[in-house]
């Protein structure tokens, strides 16, 4: 962990004695080797208005973060809520990464270290974490979610009401065309942001998106109808799943005009941002 001067150590949520022991051991060893260590509750469950994020943002020097979710999820959370880019992120629940976490500890003591723990009450949460390096602000998640979790703000889409997200629902992660939505506690590695995985848009979810929003598929030009399935052997649009040789609708000029008008109105209401 050369060059890193602060360590953020995020505890697990719960009372797993082995995890607590590992956290305590790491904190002790890191401070013994001269690091400033801030211990917080589980990073994902920290309330977004909490002072903890300001304390994290104020940590001196380069930052390493150790916690119990994927490194990508921790990096995205820190960028989103503390405006900090960590130089190292280690998932303590990944056995292969324990060595990296332990390697973060040793090193010649070049000054007194310090450990401080923020003892905040937290409870379990479930909400989407956006990966800004992938998000194009296309707004598909915002248009898809029925629970008002997202809003467009300037040139960004933001999870403004994260706790309105339905527990265990990762639907918008399947809809996002760019794999930009992470649910760090998901059992599905790609949705949890596990290294080496990336959520690919799910055809069934993309189809739900077109059904729910009434938007015309840009690939086949059709509107998807709820419940419609291609018959066995019938070709389907790879984007929206509509039967490829459905007789209905080459998009009419009138439909295209209406679509263009709706897009223009969307742009107006969002301050000129285009989908
Ligand atoms: S659907 Fe994905 S890329 Fe589009 S705004 Fe939402 S998070 Fe960003
Ligand atoms: S997971 Fe479901 S409820 Fe949560 S933000 Fe996405 S679509 Fe909305």
The major beta sheet can be summarized as:
5 strands, parallel
> What is the annotated CATH architecture of the largest domain?
3-Layer(aba) Sandwich
Termini separation comes to: 41 Å
Number of helices: 9
- Calculate Rg over CA atoms: 23 Å
Q: Total number of β-strand segments?
A: 9
Q: Order of strands across the biggest sheet?
A: 4-3-1-2-5
Domain count: 2
Q: Tell me, what is the CATH class of the largest domain?
A: Alpha Beta
Mean pLDDT: 84
In CATH terms, what is the fold-level topology of the largest domain?
A: Rossmann fold
Which geometry do the CA atoms define? elongated
β-strand percent reads 5-15%
- Structural class based on helices, strands and sheet pairing: alpha/beta
* Low-confidence blocks of residues: none
Protein described:
The protein is of the alpha/beta class. It folds into two domains: 5-117, Rossmann fold (3-Layer(aba) Sandwich), CATH 3.40.50; 126-235, Alpha-Beta Plaits. It contains nine helices and nine strands. It has helices at residues 17-32, 51-57, 71-82, 95-104, 140-144, 171-175, 189-192, 203-213, 253-269; strands at 4-10, 36-40, 62-67, 88-91, 114-117, 129-130, 150-153, 156-159, 181-182. The strands form three sheets. The chain has a five-stranded parallel sheet with strand order 4-3-1-2-5, sandwiched between helices. A two-stranded antiparallel ribbon has the order 6-9. The mean pLDDT is 84. The structure holds iron/sulfur cluster (2 copies). One iron/sulfur cluster binds at residues 130, 135-141, 157, 176, 178, 180-181. One iron/sulfur cluster (SF4) binds at residues 130, 135-141, 157, 176, 178, 180-181.
